[in-house]
Specification:
CATH architecture of the largest domain: 3-Layer(aba) Sandwich
Bound molecules: nicotinamide-adenine-dinucleotide
Distance between the termini: 68 Å
Number of strands: 21
Helix content: 25-40%
Strand order of the largest sheet: 9-8-7-10-11-20
Strand content: 15-25%
Shape: globular
Number of helices: 14
Structural class: alpha/beta
CATH superfamily of the largest domain: Aldehyde Dehydrogenase, Chain A, domain 1
CATH topology of the largest domain: Aldehyde Dehydrogenase, Chain A, domain 1
CATH class of the largest domain: Alpha Beta
């Protein structure tokens, strides 16, 4: 199957071919979807020039006008959600429901930040000694370099582009090379919405390290916003240190899903199915370790197995399927490798359902009897595998849940919201979902503690990642 979408680089408002190319394939069938331009180092620097040249005019464009362009992008993306969802299914492999959910979530960042654009606040106050007035202003940082992963090809792009543009920054987006088509489609949407030439540039590339390093070293680039693995995040932080470049980092997760004594088990199962299975488990927010109180572990595991057994695995183009393919054979193989290691630990592996013989599919697994410290609790699984660990006291559950270098999100199921909130405050994570399986919302601050990241996206905080605070001391 071929796709009819943009296949060239988007630089300075033009669709530009490159001497190098990259192939995009459908992980459900291994078929070639498109051959697209792959940015060279020079293309990357051309994108910096375009974004730099466009910056002053965009930064001084009235916020209301910037807001209306972003709102138009929301309207187009929502009206054409099926086109976007289809591209996501084809290049990423995920289930149709997940792709539609992602598209609408992604579009909402344009709407949310269109509303935020005209509400960038300043501050006026007197110093305590009254010797001066303190006037605080926020101004756009400049050219923003945005790097996104393959697991949410639309939402991770809009979660960065929308606040950057709302703040008055221009940007260069480097999408993951597995899923560049969605990003190029979003560039078309922004162009149609009236984004001026050079304000948004999109440069997929296979020469990621070289192109990114050159962009980060360029003094015209003012900030980096990265979403991806903690490993690559650390690598980029070392590079940004050389220029003391502000950096926002949305990195890996290893989310605990804790069911305390007294929790509603059926509600916990419904939440677990969302927290684990949204995006086939390939989400930074995916529940990775299930800590279940000893009084309910047997009931919970039995019910979760039954729920997994009802899942249909297959191509996302068939809307009846619940679980699609992993993004590539390589990503599927990484999960199979973890399962092999789990088996070597003596854990029993029993796939919940049959899967298609061809394509990067993987069966869902519930794995009981897992010990803290297992390969399954130490690694971000990024697939439909649910390891279950039993705990006794509340303190033990909290201690095991926090026993990780990551701290993106925790899921807490407790008797009621009051107990849930008390326990949530003990979680070492930037986000906690209490008695529910989903927390992400464009209006909420998304981000992690510990090695899960720096900064927040969405909410009121998101736009500030692209704004510089400037203080004026004034004698009035
Ligand atoms: P990845 O780190 O391998 O790649 C992410 C992006 O970085 C891609 O665009 C990739 O091309 C680019 N990249 C790779 N090497 C680079 C280098 N040397 N210099 C510059 N860029 C480079 O991650 P992935 O496999 O695409 O995505 C999965 C990871 O992303 C998981 O760890 C997941 O938890 C994380 N993630 C985090 C969030 C969040 O908001 N915290 C959201 C989604 C995904």
């Amino acid at each position: 199957m071929t796709v009819t979408t943009a296949t060239k680089l988007f630089i300075g408002g033009e669709w530009v071919d490159s001497t190098k190319h990259l192939e995009v394939t459908d992980p459900a069938t291994s078929e070639l979807l498109a051959v697209i331009s792959s940015a060279s180092l020079q293309d990357g620097l051309d994108a910096v020039t375009a974004a730099h040249n466009a910056f002053h005019t965009w930064a001084t464009t009235p916020a209301r006008q910037r807001a209306e362009i972003l709102r138009k992008a929301w309207e187009i993306m929502t009206a054409e959600a099926e086109t976007c969802a289809r591209l996501i299914v084809l290049e990423n492999g995920k289930a149709w429901r997940d792709a539609m959910g992602e598209t609408l979530y992604a579009a909402e960042f344009f709407r949310w930040f269109s509303e935020e654009a005209s509400r960038i606040e300043g501050d006026f106050r007197y110093s305590p000694s009254r010797d001066k007035t303190i006037v605080t202003d926020h101004r756009p940082m400049g050219v923003a370099f945005l790097i996104t992963p393959w697991n949410f090809p639309a939402a991770m792009a809009t979660r960065k582009i929308a606040p950057a543009l709302a703040a008055g920054c221009t940007c260069i987006l480097k999408p993951a090379s597995e899923t560049p088509l969605t990003a190029l489609w979003i560039a078309e949407v922004l162009q149609r919405a009236g984004v001026p030439a050079g304000v948004v540039n999109v440069i997929p590339t296979t020469e990621t390290g070289m192109v990114s390093s050159a962009i980060l070293a360029d003094p015209r680039v003012a900030t980096l916003s990265f979403t991806g693995s903690t490993y690559v995040g650390k690598l980029l932080l070392r590079q940004t240190a050389d220029r003391v470049l502000p950096s926002s980092m949305e990195l890996g997760g290893n989310a605990p899903f804790i069911v305390f004594e007294g929790a509603d088990i059926d509600a916990a199962i419904a939440g677990a199915m969302i927290a684990k299975m949204r995006n086939g488990g390939a989400a930074c927010t995916a529940a990775n370790r299930f800590y279940i109180h000893e009084s309910v572990e047997a009931d919970f595991s039995h019910k979760l197995r039954n729920a997994f057994a009802d899942l249909k695995v297959g191509s996302g183009l068939d809307q009846a399927n619940d679980l699609g393919a992993m993004v590539s054979d390589g990503e599927r193989d990484k999960i199979l490798e973890l399962l092999n290691e789990a088996s070597a630990e003596g854990l029993a592996l029993d796939p919940a359902v049959e899967i298609p013989k061809q394509g990067a599919f993987i069966a869902p697994y519930v794995i009981t009897g897992v010990e803290q410290g297992s390969v399954l609790t130490r690694n971000e699984i990024f697939g439909p595998v649910a390891p279950i660990i039993v705990f006794g006291s509340e303190d033990e559950g909290v201690r095991m849940a926090n026993d990780t270098d990551y701290g993106l999100i925790s899921y807490v199921y407790a008797r009621d919201a009051g107990v849930g909130l008390r326990l949530a405050r003990r979680m070492e994570s930037g986000m906690v979902a209490i008695n529910r399986g989903l927390a992400s919302d464009p209006a909420a601050p998304f981000g992690g503690m510990k090695e899960s990241g720096l900064g927040r996206e969405g909410g009121f905080a998101g736009i500030h990642e692209f704004l510089e605070t400037q203080y004026f001391a004034v004698d009035l």
